């Protein structure tokens, strides 16, 4: 049967050899309470039950098989078994004398617990007496849509924006509801619906009314709406002559604007702000600091409980410093000067969402200012929608990295979950990869990146392998003969992309502006930081960006341990080699190969892996419905061809400098 992938990981496909507990659990359900969220829970149970077993649940308070209720609603003998400390969003699912109990302190917790229970049923994983206790480790788990008001999506590759501004507010499309369901099912609790390169118009009543309609639709799913605030809005839509953050009129304008927004959206989440970066207006225009800018907006939102997510992606081509260093230099001196309702949003790496980057040196460097993670789910630099890259291992690599700022064991994840510096607010943002494509994300497998983001935002310590395993089972099949090879393919896919795009710490050699495909030759254009040669520095002497004390010394922004570790050629992980060091072509690698050969082998390996994926997929055609099968197959073929394109282009280009032949085993360019 045709499956266009619209149902994501909420397939609720038939469970053929169901065990008794699975068949039973949805048969007689006792749900306490009422309200919108409870209705949603019932709807979900019905969808799942009909999908799994072609039946509907019966609601009864007698001898039920499933009890769903708040801790203070369910019978006290069960309530005493519910874990403490669930907070506002946690849940506990456990079994007791043949019954399954889902309990929480809020209906939102019940919704999360219900989704989890249904996932367990689909995955055929039973609930034991102790059960499952889940409490989110991060408070704000937010998708950032880079969606414009004309429905184009910046760095979006899966169609247009799903927000149909023209039909809003009167038409609430089913897709908004399914979007909310999908997010709630993985614990995402916020969405910033507009591009960081913001249009001030979204803050006018015309659009606020539309945003409010979305907020109304999302609210029962526990999802708050956020908007991007263009710093110059007071001038563009407010008629003021300045947007200077210390100007009382400007401050007053934002206060009134905040009040107005909260009239439309009483639980409005707050603002995401890109300022002083890539042409966006900001406090620099008035000689003010990032803190002065952020604090002005924070003061306006404070009476209503809103927060400001102020992005640290601040850099300028007029600053001669290595772009790697600029955000750190700008923000660290401001540590402790931000208002309590500001959280600084930092990209995972210091350059820009490269296939691989060392973690951003700001993590660990601002103990008095909450920092949140910004990951990119959309694949701006990883082959857009057509190249398979399961990103959980990339996110995990960054989260597990040790910053050493409070000694060993100061992982980035501890900055993000707030435990390292006792942050009062915590957050994780993911730049969405969602569009109007029937399957939401272009590549069917990129649904897994949306899913993975949700799982890691909930628990930054979650393992990629578990995420992949669950996602495959929920989306396709629990058959081990399918799960094992697909999981392997997914888990290796990010490294494969690194191999054929930017191995060994090479970075930013993508084509200009669209960033699809190779462009190590990109020069000129008036901005050093927007050329590739700036990053790879290839010449007859060798290649790489020297970020040691002999070069830009970006390394000094990391803890002493890392300066030593990454600064030393003996100890630097080879995956970061050319990120931090400039080396001659005949530099001896650990493998015994010279640098040039090693680079070539990585590209070749990436090509071979991409080809191998086609075989893997071909062998599994029996497990996948025709539509998804063909769709994925054609994308895998594109990827294998383009891996060759990458290899050939990059090796031909660098070969002009190395003047060395390709080593044996690397195919000559086509
Ligand atoms: C990248 C990307 C831009 C985006 C920017 C940002 O530079 O290419 O499209 O606006 O990041 O994160 O602000």
Write structural notes for this entry:
The chain has 670 residues and is of the alpha/beta class. The chain folds into three domains: 20-134, Chitobiase/beta-hexosaminidase domain 2-like (Chitobiase, domain 2, 2-Layer Sandwich), CATH 3.30.379; 140-475, Glycosidases (TIM Barrel, Alpha-Beta Barrel), CATH 3.20.20; 498-545 and 582-658, Alpha-Beta Complex (Alpha-d-glucuronidase, C-terminal Domain). The protein is 37% helix and 10% strand. It has helices at residues 20-25, 36-53, 76-79, 107-123, 174-185, 205-218, 233-236, 248-264, 290-301, 323-331, 392-400, 412-416, 447-458, 464-475, 480-501, 533-536, 560-567, 577-580, 595-619, 626-658; strands at 28-31, 58-59, 66-70, 91-96, 99-104, 132-134, 140-144, 190-192, 224-228, 270-273, 307-311, 342-347, 371-376, 427-431. The strands form two sheets. The protein has an eight-stranded parallel β-barrel. Strand 10, helix 9 (290-301) and strand 11 form a beta-alpha-beta unit. Helix 8 (248-264) packs across helix 9 (290-301) and helix 19 (595-619) runs antiparallel to helix 20 (626-658). The two termini are 40 Å apart. The site of alpha-D-glucopyranuronic acid has 9 residues, from loops.
